[in-house]
Amino acid sequence: MAGAKEEEEAMATKGGAMEGVGFRQMVPLLLVQFSQAVQVMMLFPLLVFMVEFYGVAGDDPKLLGTYTGVLASMFPLSMFITSFFWGWLSDRIGRKPVTLIGGLSIGIGSVLLGFTTDYYMALTIRIVTGLFNNITSMLKCMISEMSGKHLAKGMAYFSVAWTTGTLIGPSLAGILAMPCQQYGHRFPTCEHEDAFLNRFPFFLSFFFFGVFTLCSAIYAALVVPETLKNKKPLGLNKGLRRVLTFRSSAGALRGADGSSPKRTYEDVKYEHLEDPKGKEGLELTEVMSGNGNGNGMDNGHRYEEGREVSDEDEDQGLLSSSAKSAGANEESWFRNRDVQLACFLYGMVALFYVAFEELFPLFGSARVENGGLSLASKDVGIFMSIGGGFTIPYSLLLFPRLVKAKGTLWLVKFGSITCMVLAVFTPFMRLLATQVDHPDEDNQINRSGLGDMSPLLWVVMTVHAILIHVTGTNCFASIIIVVNMASPKAHFGAVNSYGQALASLMRVIGPGSVGLLWTLCGRIKGSTMLQVSLPFVFCGLTALAMFVLALVAPKHLDSRT
To answer: Could you give the angle at which helices 455-486 and 377-393 cross, rounded to 10 degrees?
Structure first.
């Protein structure tokens, strides 16, 4: 705790940003980001098999895509509903409380999901956990505020944490899921039909990562200093404000000597006071707490024209003008063209990747005669992890250099073109797949298909996985920097959460759209290639929209630092 306090003081003396980005200082935040990536990505290779286990699709395999799309969409939909609120709140109470709330909610929800045997119960859990989760926005704010001039390096660390989660999450979740079905009686406790892991086949995946998420969130809350130095007024009554900022009620009621509480600089964020009778606004002297600032006033109290401003004055509405000013500022950033363009570009990047990551497992798990590759859940997870593993050295060694050489907007444009090519090319991989007849056709969905793949298909899928993940690193890390460039510093949390809300909305549209397309196209009579290709066309059009938005973005949003 002492080290965290020293880091916080150092950040305060440097204007709220570190001179350099140290990996050690960011480790707790990167652990939280890693756990968030795992929680988001681990579900994709499991979705098809979870819906099958729940039995909600019945005997109609064409409904499988629809139900998997709905289950994948509920989490980002609930995040979309509350993301802006959590961002608004973080500008007032700090980043740490909002991050802790999100970590606790998603960790507990993951553990509960491991005990779920009903589709609609799983849906409910995903909705509730999403409502309280705004971790990604808060981590983007905290890392940006810590990075200072080294934003590209900070985003490289951020990207490494995410891609490491995508590396370990899908593959380990696929390996741990349905152990009795995958490994038979060789796996402990799978000897009987009513064994625990037979009744809860996804318990190991969700429980393991749920506990890890809880531990990482609590660890970060204990050791990471608050990065937001200039908190805005809550505009709420004192009691609720103390609860939201985790302040001690006893300490707030009285000082050490039993007198009125001392008001520190952290509590003084108002520029003007307004007389309740409508008189002109009066200037408020801001007083620094701590060692003093040379003006003789270092007691942390607030003064207005020679008198201390009491809590009663605050409750009587003397701070109403600052609330009006804050409201005007909120409206001004929302109408900012650069903010809207950057956030919508972020949303389109999210739409492409969530749609593609939902669609590829459907394509990979479909049988060869139905246009797929006949892969099992762990097979799909392995190829996702291969791509994620390659991006770790890329993010650390090449991405910061490419940002300096080409700029963030160039990387987004180039990434958009690459995404278009990959989306169009993906369905043609089934031409390299070999149809193999197996006696136990009913259990083929749980049987690995890696052994039936040709060497050429192995190479093609490996290169495909590397390209899609490297492009994702370029696009996501670059667009986060673009959003930060467009964001007014006073509304950093609100703007980042607004972008995250749009991304969450796209994560609702993406899985539902491609899931529905997959189901509808499966009913088209005729060419199997046409049935498989149309959903990927949706991904290609999304990549085209990314390119157009990046093309019209103004040059001052570009960054080479």
So the answer is: 60
Distance, CA of 558 to CA of 406 (rounded, Å): 10
Give 84-121 pLDDT, tens digit per residue.
899 889 888 889 999 999 999 999 999 999 999 899 99
Tell me which residue has tokens 């270092």: 298
CA 1 to each of CA 11, 318, 417: distance values in angstroms, whole numbers, following the listed order = 15, 37, 47
Say how many residues make up the chain: 561
Q: 191 near 185, Cβ under 8 Å?
A: yes
Interstrand relation of 282-283 and 303-304 (parallel, antiparallel or unpaired): unpaired
Q: Are 38 and 168 spatial neighbours (Cβ–Cβ below 8 Å)?
A: yes
Rounded-to-integer distance, Cα 345 and Cα 354, Å: 14
Q: Which domains does the chain have, with CATH numbers?
A: 2-7+21-230+331-557 (1.20.1250.20), 246-318 (no CATH)
Q: Which of 440, 456, 423, 382 is nearest to 532 (CA)?
A: 423
3 state DSSP class of 324: helix
Please state, in angstroms and rounded to a whole number, the distance separating the CA atoms of residues 161 and 168: 11
CA 389/CA 324 separation, integer angstroms: 49
* Whole-prediction pTM: 0.68
Rg, C-alpha atoms of the chain: 26
Residue with tokens 């510093």: 489
Closest CA to 209 of 178, 163, 176: 176
DSSP secondary structure code for residue 61 in this structure: G
Ordered DSSP codes for 396-450: IIIHHHHHHHH-HHHHHHHHHHHHHHHHHHGGGGGGG------S-GGGGGGS--G
Q: Residue 217 pLDDT more than 90?
A: yes
Reported as a single tens digit per residue, the pLDDT across 473-501 is 889 989 989 998 898 887 888 888 899 88
Between CA 373 and CA 164 the distance in angstroms is 26
Is it the case that residue 312 has pLDDT exceeding 50?
no
- Within 13 A of 496's CA, how many CA atoms are on the CB side? 27
CA–CA separation, 41 and 533 (whole Å): 23
User: 375: closest CA among 363, 386, 364?
Assistant: 364
Instruction: Name the token pair of 22.
Output: 């140290």
Q: How far is CA 84 from the centre of its chain?
A: 14
